C-alpha cells in the first residue's frame, strides 16, 4: 500500500514545554485515527527529534525542518537563544527559512499561535518579550500568515488539532502527480544526472535491454484492468529519471518509490543505470536516513570501485554531500579513477567555485580521513576567511596535526584566529602548549579564543615567567576563564587575594556590546567559576578559619558545605538534616532577609529562592555522595525522589557503587529534562554516566528494555552504550518489538545497533519480519538494516559508530 508521509514541524522558544507535549499527543492520535485510515501517515517533529553530535545544533534542526509539509509556530514571553548564525534566535531562523521555502515551493503551510500575556508583563516587558511583541505586530501588519492566540494548554491542543486535521485531509486528497516540484514528500530527489555523470566520466552507454524489456511489459499492464502495481509505477519513474537530459524538466524520485523498489529488489532485474539512480536518490537524502542506499552502493562500487568518488565530484550539491558523508563513514579514501589528470579529489572539493556547504562537507571528511598532504589546501581555505567554512577548516587542520604532532597542533592554534571551536579538539591541541617556548606562549596571550589565553596564562605561571603586567591584564580579561587562570597564578605566587577581591575579579559587571548606555549585568560564567574557585580554596583553608566565614552572608553556604565535607564537628549531621527537608528550614533561617537572585538565570523566569535552594541541595547531595557511606543511601533516594534535583556527578557514582536495581528509575527517569537544560552539563556527560550506571546495576537490562518506564532518550542511550555481546543475546522477537516502538530515538538506536552487532542472516530475518508487520512503516529502520545486509559487520559497526559521533 502506498503510504503518503505528512511531516509537520513545531517551532517554539522556551517556556511552552507543556504545549509542545500536548501537540505531540494530538499528532499521535490524529495519525492513528485520521491519517492512517486515509492511506497516509502523520509525523510531528521538532528539536527533540534532532540528534546530538558534532556541528551547529540549529543546522541539524534546519535539516529536519526542510522536509516538512506543515509548520506550527508557538510563542509566549521568550524569544529564544542565539543559534550561532545571522538570526537572533533559533525560532527566528526556523520561521524565516520556512517562510522563504514556502515562497519557493508552496511548502510548508504555516500557522502561528501566541499564548496570552498578562497586562503586568506587557507594561514592563523584558528584552525577550519586546521581540515577541514586535514579531506579532509584524505579522499583523503584513497579513501574510494566519495566527491566533490561546490561553491554556488545552486550548492550544484544540487549535493544533484543527490545523492538522484540515491539512491532513487536503494533503492526502492531493494527487501527487498534480503537485509538481512542490510535492511534500521529504525525499524529492533529482536523479536524472546519474546517466549524464557516467557519460561525462567516459562510461559506455548502458545496456538498454533490461529497461526495454520492462517497458514493454509495463505497456501491456497499463491496458489491463488492474493497471500497474505501485512498485511498477515506481520503476517507471526511476527509468524516466535516469534517462533524463539537461533539456528535460527535473524528474523526482520520492522516498516511497525508492523504498517500494528496494522492498521488491529481489524480484526486479535492475540495470546498472537504474541502481545508479537509486544510489543517487539515497545519497541526495542521506541525512534523512529514509531512503535505502547501502545495497545499491555496495553493488555499484563492487563493479566500479571509483563510483562513489565520482558522485562527490559531479551532480547536484545534496548528492555530492551525501557521497562525501558515505565516504567518510565507511572510512574510505577517494579513488583516482575519475579524477582530472594530476588532480586530487580534495583539490576538486575545495575549489573556490564550489559552494560553502559542499566545501564544509569536504572539510568534515578531511578532519577524519585527511593526511598532512592536504594541509596546504586547508590553509588556502582558512585564508579565504569564509564565515561558513572557517571553523570546519581550522578544526580539520587541528585534527590532522594532532594525528601527527601534538606540538604542531599547538603551534597551529597560535597561527589562526578564532573564538570558539569544538571543545574536545581545542583541549587536545592545547595540551601541546607545555612544550612551546615562552615567546610562542606570549602570542597566545592576545588570541581571540578565551581558552587559548587562559592556557597561555596558566602555562607561563607554572614556569614562573608570567610578568606582573600580563597578570594584571589577565585579571581584567573579558573572559571569566582567563580571570580564573589569573587568580590561580596569584596563588602560585603567594599573593592570594582576599575572597572579596577574588569575587570582585570573577563576577565583575559587564555591559552589552554596542550599547554603551545599557545597564551593567553580572557575568554569570564568572559567578559559576568563582563558586568552583571558592570550594577549592576553602578545601586548603584551616577549619578554624572556615568556621569564621559562617557569620558572613557571602560565604556562609560554601563554608557550611566545606565543613560538612571535612566532617568537622556536627556539620555533617546537620547537613543531612537540612537535606532531608530540602534546605527549607535553612533557607528560612539564613536567606529570609536577603535579596535572592537566581544563580543560573538562563530563562529569566522562576522563583530565585527555589533556584538557590536547588543549587545548594545539589551541592550538599554531592558532598554526601562523595563520602560513599551506605547509611546515606536512603537519604540520597529521598532527595532524588522529591524531583527537586537530578542526579549528577558524584551522586550518579554513589548510586552505581552503593545502590541497587531500584535506583534505575532514579538514574533514568529523573533526567527527563536534560535535553531542555543542556547548560547544566554542556557535553551531557552526566546523562551518559547515568546510563553507564544503569548498565552496571543491571547488566542484562536490554532484555527488559521494552518494559522499562524510562524516557526515550535514556532507553536509546542504553542501547548505544550496551556491549555487542549483550545486544547479540536479545531475541529476534524483542528486537522487532523495539524496532516497532513509537519512540523515535529508541527505534533509531536499535536500528543502528542491529547491523553493528548481528550476523547478516539475523539482519535479513529482522528486516523481512519488520517489512511484513503492519506497523513496520518507518523507513529509517530499512535504511540501517540494509547496511547490515550490504556490508560486513566490521564496516557496518564503523558506519554506526561514526554516525553516532557526528
Short synopsis of the structure:
The protein is mostly helical and 806 residues long. It contains 43 helices and nine strands.
Number-wise, the strands total: 9
**Range of helix content:** 55-70%
Sequence stretches where pLDDT stays below 50 over 5 or more residues: 51-55, 175-207, 599-605, 672-683
Q: How many helical elements?
A: 43
- Beta-strand content bin: under 5%
Overall form: globular
Kindly report the spatial arrangement of strands forming the biggest sheet. 2-1-3-4-5
Describe the main β-sheet briefly. 5 strands, parallel
- Return Rg in Å: 29 Å
Which structural class do you get from the secondary structure elements?
A: mainly alpha
Termini separation comes to 35 Å
Mean pLDDT: 85
Key traits:
single chain, 806 residues, mainly alpha, 5-stranded parallel β-sheet, two-stranded antiparallel sheet, 5% strand
Amino acid at each position: 500500500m502506498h503510504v503518503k508521509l505528512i511531516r509537520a514541524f513545531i517551532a517554539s522558544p522556551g517556556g511552552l514545554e507543556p504545549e509542545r507535549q500536548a501537540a505531540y499527543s494530538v499528532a499521535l492520535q490524529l495519525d492513528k485515527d485520521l491519517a492512517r485510515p486515509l492511506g497516509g501517515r502523520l509525523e510531528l517533529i521538532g528539536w527533540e527529534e534532532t540528534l546530538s553530535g558534532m556541528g551547529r545544533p540549529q543546522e541539524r534542526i534546519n535539516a529536519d525542518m526542510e522536509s516538512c509539509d506543515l509548520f506550527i509556530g508557538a510563542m509566549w514571553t521568550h524569544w529564544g537563544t542565539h543559534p550561532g548564525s545571522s538570526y537572533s534566535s533559533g525560532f527566528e531562523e526556523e520561521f524565516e527559512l520556512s517562510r522563504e521555502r514556502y515562497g519557493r515551493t508552496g511548502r510548508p503551510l504555516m500557522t502561528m499561535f501566541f499564548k496570552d500575556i498578562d497586562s503586568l508583563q506587557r507594561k514592563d516587558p523584558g528584552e525577550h518579550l519586546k521581540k515577541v511583541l514586535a514579531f506579532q505586530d509584524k505579522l499583523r501588519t503584513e497579513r501574510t500568515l494566519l495566527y491566533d492566540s490561546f490561553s491554556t494548554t488545552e486550548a492550544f491542543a484544540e487549535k493544533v488539532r484543527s490545523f492538522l486535521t484540515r491539512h491532513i485531509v487536503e494533503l492526502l486528497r492531493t494527487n501527487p502527480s498534480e503537485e509538481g516540484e512542490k510535492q511534500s514528500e521529504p525525499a524529492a530527489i533529482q536523479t536524472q544526472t546519474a546517466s549524464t555523470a557516467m557519460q561525462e566520466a567516459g562510461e559506455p552507454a548502458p545496456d538498454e535491454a533490461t529497461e526495454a524489456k520492462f517497458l514493454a511489459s509495463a505497456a501491456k499492464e497499463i491496458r489491463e484492468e488492474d493497471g500497474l502495481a505501485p512498485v511498477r509505477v515506481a520503476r517507471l519513474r526511476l527509468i524516466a529519471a535516469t534517462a533524463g537530459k539537461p533539456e528535460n524538466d527535473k524528474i523526482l524520485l520520492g522516498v516511497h518509490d525508492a523504498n517500494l523498489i528496494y522492498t521488491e529488489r529481489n524480484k526486479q532485474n535492475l540495470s546498472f543505470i537504474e541502481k545508479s539512480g537509486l544510489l543517487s536518490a539515497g545519497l541526495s537524502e542521506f541525512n534523512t536516513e529514509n531512503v535505502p542506499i547501502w545495497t545499491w552502493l555496495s553493488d555499484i562500487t563492487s563493479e566500479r570501485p571509483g563510483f562513489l568518488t565520482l558522485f562527490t565530484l559531479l551532480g547536484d550539491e545534496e548528492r555530492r554531500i551525501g557521497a562525501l558523508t558515505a565516504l567518510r563513514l565507511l572510512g574510505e579514501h577517494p579513488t583516482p579513477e575519475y579524477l582530472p589528470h594530476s588532480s586530487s579529489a580534495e583539490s576538486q572539493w575545495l575549489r573556490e567555485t564550489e559552494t560553502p556547504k559542499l566545501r564544509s562537507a569536504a572539510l568534515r571528511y578531511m578532519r577524519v580521513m585527511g593526511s598532512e598532504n592536504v594541509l596546504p589546501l586547508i590553509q588556502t581555505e582558512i585564508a579565504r576567511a569564509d564565515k561558513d567554512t572557517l571553523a570546519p577548516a581550522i578544526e580539520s587542520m587541528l585534527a590532522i596535526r594532532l594525528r601527527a604532532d601534538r606540538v604542531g597542533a599547538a603551534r597551529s592554534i597560535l597561527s589562526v584566529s578564532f573564538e570558539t571551536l569544538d571543545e574536545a579538539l581545542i583541549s587536545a591541541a592545547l595540551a601541546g602548549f607545555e612544550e612551546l617556548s615562552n615567546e610562542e606562549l606570549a602570542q597566545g596571550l592576545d588570541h581571540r579564543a578565551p581558552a587559548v589565553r587562559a592556557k597561555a596564562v596558566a602555562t607561563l605561571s607554572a614556569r614562573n615567567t608570567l610578568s606582573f603586567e600580563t597578570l594584571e591584564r589577565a585579571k581584567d580579561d573579558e573572559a571569566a576563564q582567563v580571570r580564573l587562570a589569573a587568580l590561580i597564578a596569584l596563588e602560585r605566587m603567594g599573593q592570594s587575594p582576599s575572597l572579596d577581591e577574588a569575587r570582585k575579579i570573577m563576577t565583575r559587571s559587564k555591559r552589552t556590546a554596542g550599547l554603551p548606555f545599557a545597564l551593567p549585568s553580572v557575568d554569570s560564567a564568572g559567578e559559576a567559576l568563582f563558586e568552583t574557585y571558592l570550594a577549592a580554596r576553602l578545601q586548603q583553608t584551616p577549619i578554624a578559619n572556615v568556621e569564621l566565614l559562617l557569620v558572613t552572608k557571602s560565604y556562609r553556604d560554601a563554608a557550611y558545605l566545606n565543613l560538612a565535607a571535612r566532617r568537622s564537628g556536627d556539620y555533617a549531621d546537620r547537613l543531612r538534616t537540612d537535606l532531608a527537608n530540602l534546605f527549607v528550614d535553612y533557607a528560612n533561617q539564613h536567606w529570609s532577609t536577603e535579596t535572592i537572585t537566581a544563580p543560573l538565570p538562563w530563562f529569566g523566569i522562576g522563583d530565585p529562592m527555589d533556584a538557590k535552594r536547588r543549587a545548594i541541595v545539589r551541592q550538599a547531595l554531592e558532598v554526601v555522595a562523595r563520602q560513599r557511606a551506605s547509611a546515606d543511601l536512603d537519604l540520597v533516594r529521598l532527595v532524588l525522589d522529591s524531583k527537586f534535583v537530578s542526579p549528577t556527578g558524584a551522586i550518579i557514582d554513589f548510586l552505581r557503587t552503593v545502590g541497587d536495581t531500584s535506583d534505575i528509575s532514579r538514574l533514568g527517569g529523573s533526567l527527563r529534562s536534560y535535553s531542555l537544560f543542556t547548560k547544566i552539563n554542556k557535553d551531557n556527560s552526566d546523562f551518559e554516566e547515568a546510563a553507564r550506571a544503569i548498565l552496571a546495576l543491571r547488566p542484562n537490562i536490554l532484555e527488559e528494555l521494552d518494559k522499562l518506564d524510562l524516557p526515550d532518550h535514556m532507553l536509546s542511550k542504553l542501547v548505544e552504550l550496551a556491549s555487542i555481546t549483550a545486544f547479540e543475546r536479545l531475541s529476534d522477537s524483542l528486537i522487532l518489538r523495539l524496532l516497532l516502538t513509537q519512540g523515535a530515538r529508541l527505534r533509531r538506536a536499535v536500528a543502528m545497533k542491529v547491523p553493528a552487532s548481528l550476523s547478516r542472516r539475523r539482519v535479513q530475518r529482522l528486516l523481512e519480519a519488520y517489512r511484513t508487520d503492519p506497523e513496520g512503516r518507518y523507513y529509517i529502520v530499512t535504511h540501517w538494516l540494509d547496511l547490515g545486509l550490504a556490508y560486513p559487520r566490521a564496516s557496518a559497526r564503523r558506519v554506526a559508530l561514526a554516525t553516532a559521533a557526528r
